[in-house]
Amino acid sequence: xxxxxxxxxxxxxxxxxxxxxxxxxxxxxxxxxxxxxxxxxxxxxxxxxxxxxxxxxxxxxxxxxxxxxxxxxxxxxxxxxxxxxxxxxxxxxxxxxxxxxxxxxxxxxxxxxxxxxxxxxxxxxxxxxxxxxxxxxxxxxxxxxxxxxxxxxxxxxxxxxxxxxxxxxxxxxxxxxxxxxxxxxxxxxxxxxxxxxxxxxxxxxxxxxxxxxxxxxxxxxxxxxxxxxxxxxxxxxxxxxxxxxxxxxxxxxxxxxxxxxxxxxxxxxxxxxxxxxxxxxxxxxxxxxxxxxxxxxxxxxxxxxxxxxxxxxxxxxxxxxxxxxxxxxxxxxxxxxxxxxxxxxxxxxxxxxxxxxxxxxxxxxxxxxxxxxxxxxxxxxxxxxxxxxxxxxxxxxxxxxxxxxxxxxxxxxxxxxxxxxxxxxxxxxxxxxxxxxxxxxxxxxxxxxxxxxxxxxxxxxxxxxxxxxxxxxxxxxxxxxxxxxxxxxxxxxxxxxxxxxxxxxxxxxxxxxx
Length: 514
Hints:
By secondary structure, the protein is an alpha/beta fold. The protein contains 19 helices and 22 strands. The protein folds into 3 domains: 233 residues, 3-Layer(aba) Sandwich (Rossmann fold), CATH 3.40.50.300; 170 residues, 3-Layer(aba) Sandwich (Rossmann fold); 66 residues, no CATH class. The strands form 5 sheets. The protein has a 6-stranded mixed sheet with strand order 6-7-8-3-9-10, with helices on both faces. Strands 16-19-20-13-21-22 form a 6-stranded mixed sheet, sandwiched between helices. It has a 4-stranded antiparallel sheet with strand order 2-1-4-5, with helices on one face.
């Protein structure tokens, strides 16, 4: 490494009250490299980059950029320093065109309007140069998620940035779009740019990087050349212990159908069509995956199955019983458990204790209530048992669940739902926002439930999660099931095409079988 790195973030501290989000981070970036910042959600990656691009101010520490101290007070100042960030959640105005988004906040509206032809021409030239296929007159809300991401990347380049920060850019992409993005990153570096790539996906980091820095507990714990490390070592650095990279499981022997969905159609909260003629079955003793880019009807499918979203057409059966149109309370009384995609919105009550969260859906049932009174000792014993079995890191059952990490919160939600001994388990985004060690444990627990004969429908945007434990995978796009594939990583390209909206033909479907 040179004596004067292109960028050095030195001993960066940041906290919100008592919550520490950057605990003295030191990071060096060399010019003309792809430097990956690897770590699980909550490790401090996005916070550190938000400080670099002017969204947050550090409590202490300094940034040296191109050999000089850097003090940035806003994202606009960062762009003036040729530093730009493409955020995980896009920063585009949906009802404006691409060109209009590019010139927002860039000066006098009258002057910009006169120069819009020039803006259009420059966007087309840069789009062709980088192979991004961005149309300046396209309205953002009419674009797919992958197209919107290309718009965001070209926006940073349009403003002349030399240092590009890409925050979890592959989270909303198909495998083919991911390959295209990783190739683009290398092309940008070859063109003289420097890229910081934020991710928690080991395979992509290994493919894309020149160097890798691993963050854990809001610190950088290790920096290495990609040629000097391996996925297994990176996983150990992220978690602090060895992690099982492959989960062995035996072929499934499915039993009777526990969930049957026929011709299901429904609308989203805005009244727009979200699901179109969904047909699927889940049998006891199997895990069926639902793969797809986020926003293609997965959320509505989970809500409809759990009674939280009205059904326009179709039929839902649980163990042969028609549950279409039943209320969430009525479905909750059946042999049905649900791990929701957003634990904070639908899975837990943050100010309440672990014990209170552990009985949320069963507080009025034996053994937790008798003669109208809560049985505190039995509730405490039940919660302590869940904590021990699922290795939830907590002081005790009376601790507010808000004090726990995301992974430990998720463990408690999963433990609570499995404690109901359901015949059918609906799971959405099982491993979202949890560390790789907790992922390993929870996936193993899902396999145990499968062996116990439960039917599981696993909805996930993480293909590795689906390939690891599913017996078969259905792919959803624009609210339709477009095909079914086995959990074979050699079929990844096929899954990507289905995710992008290319229907499987009947020959392919017949070859897959059940």
